[in-house]
């Protein structure tokens, strides 16, 4: 915290021009790195008359394969997932070791996914790919449910307990330990290191800079636009968020879970209520909106790459919103109190589903109000969603700002923990190293508030998609081990007929 106060004193002693120069300078150097990184991750394969990024294809194939192997678990397992969550939300029936309850683990995972991606991510998809992109976001979420089930189950199966009772888990651990058990240490160790190394910039980008950047834009929007103090001093808002995050993350996963389990239900209720009002007031337009989404999903207007281009845009934003296959949420699921890895796997099905529900509300508001028609000349984020809400309620940007700030705050908090686990996997569990990471993370929050959206989006997407490569490789290899656990669990709970 002393470091952040020092940063504050340094910035407050400068003028607004210097503050903007910091953002522009960082953006100047980040843009080439982001572009180079994106070219590798989004390396195109020519198919269906357009270029499809190999990373998108990788996750898409992974989702299809896991959905087939699990026999459509997103359908037959959904009821059981809801039952588990409703009958044992606080983990009172769980006697296994761990740090948090099933509900807290889900809330932490949701806070990492139900963030700006559910508001700005949908807007970005529609502004680039038209209303049809929303359809492919939903398809991506459905396929993502199977991926989420597998990675969450593996995270608990191969988690490790530290001397102080804390839990370390996630792809780094099931990649390294799981593959070592299969005599593939030569593959597992490098892949685990690669994943952990990618996790840190993923946390700093999508889990940090993108969130605070969009929250800052909305704060500027409701406090006077160009005349807002935050327009001249965007770093000031970033610093406020950084201080709040700093106080939460020093308490570890228990502190994070306690905060997110309270923030997530409140912010979702607030956003859902506002969106539903807009949908109800535009009820007569719903059939046309549904037809428009489906039509443009297969016959888009003026979208680069045609249908394939719309699919790519929708799936790319789907990955950014629900993060299925990227391996981020399993880090939170690994800390749950349970003896049954598969039980949390079922509960994790709710995460992409709930994320998709919020995304659908955002898409409905944007399409029903026709706000997207004014944002078809370039990439647009939270300002498009805000404009859609404002068309119905003039005061809605203020409520939306509160929601966005809560969304951003909860996501940043969760991703701070994810990135920390990648950091400690690489550099060891020591207090000085953890404090160094936390300081870096908080400083990046301040910098992210001043940066350009496009550079952050490209950097974010590339980082998340790159994480999916080592993660899904491990999921393929370890699925045979998990299959026996699933069959035993299904037989025990009397629905073995499904699997």
What do you see in this structure?
The chain starts with a helix and ends in a 7-residue tail after the last helix. The strands form two sheets. Strands 1-2 form a two-stranded antiparallel sheet. Strands 3-4 form a two-stranded antiparallel sheet. Helix 10 (185-222) crosses helix 22 (453-492). With 499 residues, it is an all-alpha fold. A hairpin with a 2-residue loop joins strand 1 (44-47) and strand 2. Mean pLDDT is 80; it is low at 7-20. The chain contains 22 helices and four strands. It has a single domain, classed as Amino acid/polyamine transporter I (Up-down Bundle), CATH 1.20.1740.
Short description:
The chain has 499 residues and is mainly α.
Secondary structure: elements and pairs:
Elements (H helix, E strand, L loop, with lengths): L1 H11 L3 H26 L2 E4 L2 E4 H16 L3 H4 L1 H10 L14 H12 L6 H10 L2 H26 L2 E2 L5 E2 L2 H11 L3 H38 L6 H4 L1 H16 L2 H30 L4 H13 L7 H17 L7 H4 L7 H7 L2 H19 L13 H9 L5 H32 L3 H18 L4 H40 L7
Antiparallel strand pairs: 1-2, 3-4
């Amino acid at each position: 915290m002393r470091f952040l106060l020092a940063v504050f004193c340094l910035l407050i002693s400068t003028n607004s021009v210097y503050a903007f120069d910091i953002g522009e300078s960082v953006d100047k150097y980040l843009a080439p790195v982001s572009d180079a990184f994106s070219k590798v991750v989004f390396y195109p394969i020519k198919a269906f008359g357009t270029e499809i990024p190999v990373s998108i294809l990788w996750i898409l194939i992974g989702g299809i394969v896991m959905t087939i192997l699990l026999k459509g678990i997103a359908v037959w397992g959904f009821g059981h997932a809801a039952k588990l969550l409703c009958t044992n939300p606080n983990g009172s029936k769980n006697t296994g070791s761990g740090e948090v309850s099933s509900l807290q683990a889900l809330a932490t995972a949701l806070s990492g996914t139900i963030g700006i991606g559910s508001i700005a991510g949908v807007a970005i998809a529609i502004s680039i790919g038209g209303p049809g992109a929303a359809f492919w976001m939903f398809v991506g979420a459905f396929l993502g449910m199977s991926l989420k089930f597998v990675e969450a189950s593996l995270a608990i199966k191969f988690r490790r307990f530290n001397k102080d009772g804390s839990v370390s888990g996630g792809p780094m651990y099931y990649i390294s330990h799981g593959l070592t058990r299969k005599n593939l240490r030569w593959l597992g160790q490098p892949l685990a290191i690669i994943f952990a190394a990618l996790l840190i910039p993923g946390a700093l980008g999508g889990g940090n800079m993108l969130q605070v950047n969009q929250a800052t834009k909305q704060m500027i929007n409701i406090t006077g636009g160009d005349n807002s103090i935050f327009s001249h001093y965007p770093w000031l808002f970033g610093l406020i968020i950084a201080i709040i995050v700093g106080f939460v993350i020093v308490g570890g996963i228990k502190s994070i879970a306690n905060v997110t389990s309270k923030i997530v239900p409140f912010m979702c209720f607030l956003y859902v209520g506002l969106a539903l009002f807009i949908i109800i007031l535009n009820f007569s337009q719903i059939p046309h909106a549904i037809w428009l989404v489906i039509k443009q999903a297969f016959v888009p207007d003026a979208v680069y790459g045609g249908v394939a281009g719309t699919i790519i845009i929708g799936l790319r934003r789907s990955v950014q919103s629900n993060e299925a296959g990227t391996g981020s949420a399993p880090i939170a699921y690994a800390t749950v109190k349970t003896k049954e890895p598969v039980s949390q796997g079922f509960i994790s099905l709710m995460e992409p589903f709930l994320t998709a529900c919020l995304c659908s509300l955002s898409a409905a508001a944007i399409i029903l109000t026709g706000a997207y028609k004014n944002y078809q000349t370039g990439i647009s984020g939270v300002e498009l969603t805000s404009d859609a809400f404002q068309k119905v309620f003039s005061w809605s940007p203020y409520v939306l700002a509160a929601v966005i700030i809560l969304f951003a705050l909860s996501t940043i908090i969760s991703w701070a923990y994810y990135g920390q686990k990648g950091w400690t996997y690489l550099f060891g569990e020591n207090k000085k190293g953890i404090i160094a990471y936390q300081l870096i993370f908080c400083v990046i929050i301040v910098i992210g508030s001043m940066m350009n959206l496009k550079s952050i989006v490209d950097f974010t997407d590339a980082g998340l998609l790159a994480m999916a490569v080592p993660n899904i490789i491990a999921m393929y290899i370890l699925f045979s081990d998990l299959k026996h656990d699933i069959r035993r669990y299904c037989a025990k709970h009397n629905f073995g007929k499904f699997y």
